């Protein structure tokens, strides 16, 4: 309720204080503009960005940003209402929007006055009058990109548009230059009279243009294009500097609805030049409901929540975090914390005005923890024992106990099997078993993750004797091996960069083929000894082989993402593994902890789990960093990681919402436990367990459980319906958790379930034979399905049903059927 | 009555915020055309009429086209409500409402269209068509155009202390690229096309005889008629209209402007008897013109994209055309029927030529190789050679013994007319768009992106002369003819402004010109004479 009240108050203030700079937005629900007012608290600090600026060349310009910080913790942007003055208008001029332009060489200062305070910025101007031709790569490509010319829907499409093709997002300036200047014998440019060029006339809509007006006549962009044509269309060179990094102001903002903020973007080029590229960068809000952004980088805060504005410029990408608290607490209540995970989460909740749900009940926690760790429902005896335990650290003890269970190996070996795509189609049956058993041994020994991954990435030899060598059977070329390795172990999808620059990331073809170069000397061949009858393959190293660049030509050195080129006389993969598993590697540990956090918490800090990039930021970056460094500190111990997460208070929260956290509908910030459906294998085993039956899987001994299946070629309709991944692509998305109608029908009317319930050697008949009292039997059924005792109401209703049933067997069968079809059974909560 | 007045009063009051057109009567050209340009004519244009799925058969880019409508009339003057043109702007059916798949027009614009129709849908005054004034000075600064020579004056020559390469720099850039070159049948004249102008050079004296400036847009192709009495010039405004002009070479008078193409004319070919002229256009069509009657005889629509090149068979009965649609089409002139479609290329085909024996056809383009096709059975003979990157033009010598090609690899190349093997590679130094081989077989001319024409000896591949001409406001054009040795001839004005440089440093003009201004050497070079080396004074 609090935000509403504050909005109403804001409306009153608007009437009273019409002279104060206000910002407004339109709230469709209210049907009227939402207005935000500057804070009324004392101004603590006026921050002016940048501290100093250097203008080089006649067309350089830099923006000033002004932000006030107030005693109540709020901030307010003054950029558009501040007053600017240049100390020497013969050196630099500044306009009312705070844009500084060069006039003559020298040094001067700009004074910024806002909210009764003044700050000065030192300005250095050089080459103000220099005759510098327009540079294609640095000045023209950003304009074409910002105007959308080279987007995938326009001239950047595979075959271009209307006979005019540009490289996607301008990743290939040489190609673009030739297309504009030379193709169709210079149709698009008139060097002697630039304004007759259709490359100007069409986007300015002086001529018909399918893409509409993209560049206004006589705008800055128009003038630079015109100038470039007048300069004789200077050519780009492969040596042109590329953008190296982006600097953003402000890095993050906490705002109230209606508040606005201009983002300033500076690009640092590889030659050291720093340029204000706000006018040519691209801005996109990742959640329009929280904040919107104009193409000029002007943010308007809308509704509560957290979003990021994605900023892209010349192959570089980053984000600005925009937070609108769900509620504001005068004093945030004290929340209990179990470990560092809770500390990081609570800090976030405090910013957002969210509160956690209560701690989960013991039975709920116990079921959850068993399913998450070993994919197995606890037995009625285990549940009873846990409930009876009165020791204060019984949850921690239970976690330790379950981590030591043999099913731990089954459950996590299967997960790794999914990730590594262990399957008999590409590895054949013996290779598949070899790899599967190798993974099991690793999990059983709790081998540190870095060692396990190193063994996989550097595997060679027979696929029958060297389990991890089968990793290289899922593809047959360096590019695919590099893509899989990068996605799986680093959580980075570089596939886009195979053909063009990644649209939302900094990864270029240089990066892609730099990764591929690590695998280029790897080969596979049929084994000499066993090739004839066993179809055994051998992964081997070749002494020569180099990666070439498909666009630029020439050889590409092996170079990891964001790293330096590295080589190895024998096996380059060893260097890659060294780099990946180094304690300061920015990807590896974060990728592993994010995945396992996601498996346990129902949602990754970065989601999708395997799409880690600057423009898909973690919902709690501090927590991700803390988990990663803890994981590294504990020598990549997977059990330690799981134990740490499960011991956190966050993991042990109830799954029900409370009013002060229900507004975070997707539970992005983990203020409660995320409810989710059991996986296919968990369901199959839970059904067997609850009905006292054992599913026979073809080709495997009776008693083999679903979580023990080595690959997905083992036939099972139930597992397929519930979304078991086929292990064909390297993507977490392969495992489907969406509900569908066949799942429901399968459980409601399916043969399999009815057979299992009615099995004469199954649960019901066993209970009947034991001649237990109805109350005992009902309790047992609840414990073996929902892992809890029935409450009084449930006991009464079950008894009534059993009394009215034609016979006890049928009554009990109905009860079991109902329990197995309940959401409480099918879901992890 | 009072109600009406009140309503009128309201309208008048609100008109203060709504932009109103200036004229009393709304007209198509003054008020409606700007709206259509912004929202409609990207699809509804005459050039898209043939593509029904784009235009629906309706063009809105001229008043006549609007009046004509599609299958049915879209305009009923005086009654907006009865006009489909208005109805489709306001219909609630989103699948029909125009502009398709985008936001509706603003209320103001819709009101303007309604008012225009209701007031009788008047035409107004169409804009006056003006040929591009080629001499229009660019507002931007002038860049240096530097022409290198092979001469290396010793230290001290022309007052420059260092020894180094001699070149001639002129503040006249950027020059418009040379997009077409053509020899006349007697090999005495060379016509050169660039943006907005045609320069005709006397190849005996090495001086321009005429610069034609009443040309629309870039000159994409030029052809002399077989008798040499006519010069056909093809160009136009990109994406708007094609322009095809006929000049008589006796006095260089414009005798006809042939209109019909909806996009630039990119290639021309006279029939061997000179009675017909074929033109290929970016409007996807090829047209056949009667030269005497100055009218279209036939239109051919064999291509689905830009047509880059067209050529007649030696017997004049067939035409061959090359297109961005990646095909080459051979078709019958009379019936218009396709004879063969040569396909299999993955990229634009930009150049095509018929062998003088009529038996084979060559083509090339973005696909690097030169393709040889059998004109009699439609089979591919071979694909070989080429420029590695785009080939812009190919041509046969009159006797069929040589092929010459111009490439984006900044070279021109000659090839054996039978075997297809490379004979000579000549480095132009700039992307080369145009090439021609003189009918007497002795010389080659290349035109390139740097705005220069180079004349080459066909046999030795030797570079003879570089030519440059720019129309100016004065009576005489600015021009220059210079040999690789450094001997030059040119207009007084240009030579006065040009700066000789040795090793990049300014040389003294008077002694330099005294030594190097040698019209007779330029004329000699054009005859393939071996010129002496300039004797530099070491002062």
Explain what the structure shows:
Chain A has 829 residues and is of the alpha+beta class. In chain A, 36% of the residues lie in helices and 16% in strands. A 4-stranded mixed β-sheet of chain A has the order 4-12-11-8, with no helix packed on it. Chain A is globular and about 100 Å long. The model of chain A is unreliable at 1-31 (pLDDT under 50). Chain B is mainly beta and 539 residues long. The longest helix of chain B is centred in the N-terminal third of the chain and has 13 residues, at 2-14. Chain B starts with a helix and ends in a 13-residue tail after the last helix. Mean pLDDT of chain B is 88; it is low at 1-22 and 130-140. The chains are: A alpha+beta (829), B mainly beta (539). At the A-B interface, helix 3 and helix 5 of A face loops of B.
Number of helices of chain B: 9
Tell me the total number of β-strands of chain A. Answer: 29
What is the quaternary state of this protein?
heterodimer
Mean pLDDT of chain B: 88
Structural class of chain B: mainly beta
Largest sheet of chain A: 4 strands, mixed
Proportion in β-strands of chain B? 35-45%
- Biggest sheet of chain A: strands side by side, in what order? 4-12-11-8
Q: How many beta-strand runs of chain B?
A: 34
Q: Can you tell me the residue ranges of chain A where pLDDT is under 50 for at least 5 consecutive residues?
A: 1-31
């Amino acid at each position: 309720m609090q935000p509403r009240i504050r909005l109403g108050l804001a409306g009153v203030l608007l009437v009273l204080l019409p002279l104060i700079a206000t910002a407004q937005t339109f709230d469709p629900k209210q049907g009227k503009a939402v207005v935000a007012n500057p804070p009324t608290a004392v101004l603590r600090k006026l921050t002016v960005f940048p501290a100093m600026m250097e203008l080089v060349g006649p067309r350089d310009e830099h923006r000033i940003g002004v932000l006030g910080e107030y005693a109540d913790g709020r901030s307010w942007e003054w950029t558009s209402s501040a007053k600017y003055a240049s100390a020497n208008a013969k050196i630099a001029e500044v306009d009312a929007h705070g844009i500084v332009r060069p006039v003559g060489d020298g040094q001067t200062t700009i004074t910024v006055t806002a909210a009764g305070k003044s700050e000065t910025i030192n300005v250095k101007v050089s080459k103000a009058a220099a005759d510098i031709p327009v540079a294609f790569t640095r000045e023209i490509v950003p304009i074409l990109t910002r105007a959308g010319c080279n987007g995938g829907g326009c001239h950047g499409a595979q075959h271009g548009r209307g006979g005019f093709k540009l490289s996607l997002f301008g990743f290939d300036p040489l190609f673009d230059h030739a297309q504009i200047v030379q193709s169709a014998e210079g149709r698009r440019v008139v060097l002697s009279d630039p304004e007759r060029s259709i490359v100007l006339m069409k986007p300015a809509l002086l001529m018909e243009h399918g893409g509409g007006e993209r560049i206004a006549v006589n705008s800055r962009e128009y003038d630079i294009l015109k100038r470039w044509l007048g300069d004789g269309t200077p050519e780009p060179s492969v040596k042109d500097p590329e953008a190296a990094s982006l600097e953003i102001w402000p890095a993050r903002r906490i705002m109230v609805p209606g508040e606005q903020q201009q983002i300033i973007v500076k690009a640092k080029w590889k030659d050291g030049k720093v340029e204000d590229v706000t006018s040519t960068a691209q801005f996109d809000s990742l959640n329009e409901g929280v904040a919107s952004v104009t193409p000029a980088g002007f943010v308007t805060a809308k509704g509560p929540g957290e979003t990021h504005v994605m900023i892209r410029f010349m192959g570089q990408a980053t984000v600005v975090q925009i937070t609108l608290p769900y509620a504001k607490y005068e004093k945030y209540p004290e929340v209990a914390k179990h470990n560092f995970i809770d500390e990081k989460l609570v800090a976030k909740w405090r910013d957002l005005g969210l509160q956690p749900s209560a701690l989960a009940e013991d039975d709920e926690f116990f079921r959850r923890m068993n399913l998450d760790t070993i994919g197995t429902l606890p037995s009625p005896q285990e549940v009873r024992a846990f409930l009876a335990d009165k020791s204060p650290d019984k949850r921690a003890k239970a976690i330790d106990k379950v981590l030591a269970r043999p099913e731990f190996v089954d459950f996590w070996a299967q997960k790794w099997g999914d990730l590594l795509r262990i399957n008999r189609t590409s590895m054949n049956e013996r290779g598949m078993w070899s790899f599967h058993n190798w993974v099991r041994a690793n999990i059983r020994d709790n081998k540190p993750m870095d060692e396990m991954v190193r063994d996989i990435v550097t595997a060679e030899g027979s696929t029958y004797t060297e389990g991890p060598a089968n990793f290289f059977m899922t593809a047959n070329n360096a590019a695919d091996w590099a893509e899989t390795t990068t996605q799986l172990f680093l959580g980075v999808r570089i596939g886009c960069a195979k053909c063009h620059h990644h649209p939302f990331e900094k990864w270029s073809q240089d990066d892609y083929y730099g990764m591929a170069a690590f695998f280029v000397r790897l080969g596979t061949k049929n084994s000499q000894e066993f090739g004839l009858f066993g179809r055994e393959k051998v992964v081997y190293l070749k002494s020569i082989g180099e990666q070439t660049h498909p666009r630029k030509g020439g050889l590409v050195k092996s170079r990891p993402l964001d790293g330096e080129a590295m080589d190895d006389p024998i096996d380059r993969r060893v260097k890659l593994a060294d780099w990946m598993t180094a304690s300061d590697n920015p990807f590896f540990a974060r990728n592993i902890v994010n995945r396992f956090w996601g498996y346990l918490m129902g949602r990754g800090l970065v989601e999708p789990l395997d799409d880690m990039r600057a423009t898909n930021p973690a919902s709690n970056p501090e927590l991700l960093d803390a988990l990663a460094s803890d994981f590294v500190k504990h020598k990549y111990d997977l059990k330690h990681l799981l134990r740490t997460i499960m011991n956190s208070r966050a993991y042990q929260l109830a799954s029900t919402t409370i009013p002060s956290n229900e507004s975070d509908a997707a539970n992005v910030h983990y203020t409660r436990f995320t409810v989710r459906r059991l996986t296919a294998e968990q369901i199959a085993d839970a059904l067997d367990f609850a009905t006292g039956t054992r599913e026979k899987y073809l080709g495997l001994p009776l008693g083999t459980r679903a979580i023990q299946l080595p690959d997905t070629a083992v036939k099972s309709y139930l597992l397929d319906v519930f979304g078991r991944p086929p292990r064909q692509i390297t993507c977490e998305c392969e495992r489907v958790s969406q509900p569908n109608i066949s799942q429901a029908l399968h459980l409601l009317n399916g043969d399999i379930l009815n057979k299992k319930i009615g099995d004469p050697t199954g649960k019901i008949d066993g209970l009947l034979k034991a001649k237990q009292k109805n109350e005992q039997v009902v309790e047992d059924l609840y414990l073996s399905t929902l892992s809890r005792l029935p409450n009084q109401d449930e006991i009464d209703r079950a008894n009534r049903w059993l009394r009215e049933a034609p016979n006890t067997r049928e009554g009990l069968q109905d009860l079991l059927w109902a329990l197995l079809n309940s959401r409480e059974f099918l879901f992890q909560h | 009555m009072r109600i009406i007045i009140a309503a009128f009063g309201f309208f008048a009051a609100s008109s203060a915020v709504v932009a109103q057109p200036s004229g009393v009567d709304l007209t198509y050209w003054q008020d409606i055309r700007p709206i259509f340009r912004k929202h409609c004519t990207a699809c509804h244009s005459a050039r898209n009429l043939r593509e029904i799925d784009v235009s629906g058969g309706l063009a809105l880019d001229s008043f006549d086209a609007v009046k004509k409508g599609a299958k049915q009339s879209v305009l009923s003057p005086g009654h907006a409500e009865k006009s489909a043109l208005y109805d489709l702007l306001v219909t609630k059916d989103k699948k029909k409402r125009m502009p398709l798949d985008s936001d509706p027009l603003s209320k103001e614009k819709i009101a303007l269209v309604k008012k225009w129709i209701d007031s009788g849908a008047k035409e107004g005054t169409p804009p006056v068509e003006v040929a591009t004034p080629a001499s229009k000075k660019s507002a931007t600064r002038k860049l240096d155009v530097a022409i290198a020579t092979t001469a290396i004056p010793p230290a001290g020559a022309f007052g420059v202390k260092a020894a180094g390469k001699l070149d001639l720099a002129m503040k006249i850039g950027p020059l418009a690229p040379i997009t077409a070159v053509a020899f006349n049948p007697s090999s005495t004249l060379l016509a050169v096309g660039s943006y907005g102008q045609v320069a005709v050079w006397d190849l005996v004296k090495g001086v321009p005889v005429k610069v034609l400036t009443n040309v629309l847009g870039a000159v994409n192709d030029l052809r002399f008629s077989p008798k040499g009495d006519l010069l056909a010039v093809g160009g136009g405004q990109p994406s708007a209209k094609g322009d095809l002009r006929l000049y008589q070479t006796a006095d260089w008078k414009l005798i006809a402007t042939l209109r019909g193409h909806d996009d630039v004319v990119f290639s021309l070919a006279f029939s061997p008897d000179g009675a017909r002229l074929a033109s290929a256009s970016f409007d996807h069509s090829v047209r056949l013109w009667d030269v005497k009657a100055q009218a279209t005889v036939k239109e051919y629509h064999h291509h689905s994209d830009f047509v880059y090149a067209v050529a007649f068979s030696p017997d004049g009965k067939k035409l061959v055309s090359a297109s961005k649609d990646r095909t080459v089409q051979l078709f019958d002139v009379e019936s218009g029927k396709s004879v063969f479609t040569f396909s299999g290329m993955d990229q634009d085909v930009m150049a095509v030529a018929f062998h003088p024996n009529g038996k084979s056809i060559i083509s090339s383009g973005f696909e690097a190789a030169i393709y040889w096709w059998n004109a009699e059975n439609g089979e591919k003979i071979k694909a070989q050679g080429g420029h590695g990157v785009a080939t812009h033009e190919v041509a046969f010598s009159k006797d069929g013994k040589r092929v010459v090609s111009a490439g984006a690899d900044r070279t021109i190349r000659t090839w054996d007319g039978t075997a297809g093997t490379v004979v000579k590679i000549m480095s132009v130094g700039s992307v080369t768009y145009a090439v021609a081989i003189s009918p007497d077989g002795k010389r080659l001319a290349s035109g390139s992106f740097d705005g220069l024409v180079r004349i080459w000896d066909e046999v030795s591949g030797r570079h003879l002369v570089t030519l440059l001409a720019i129309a100016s406001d004065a009576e005489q054009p600015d021009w220059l003819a210079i040999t690789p040795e450094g001997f030059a001839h040119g207009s007084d004005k240009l030579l006065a402004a040009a700066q000789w440089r040795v090793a990049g440093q300014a040389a003294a003009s008077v002694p330099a010109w005294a030594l190097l201004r040698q019209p007779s050497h330029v004329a000699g070079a054009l005859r393939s004479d071996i010129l002496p080396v300039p004797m530099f004074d070491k002062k």
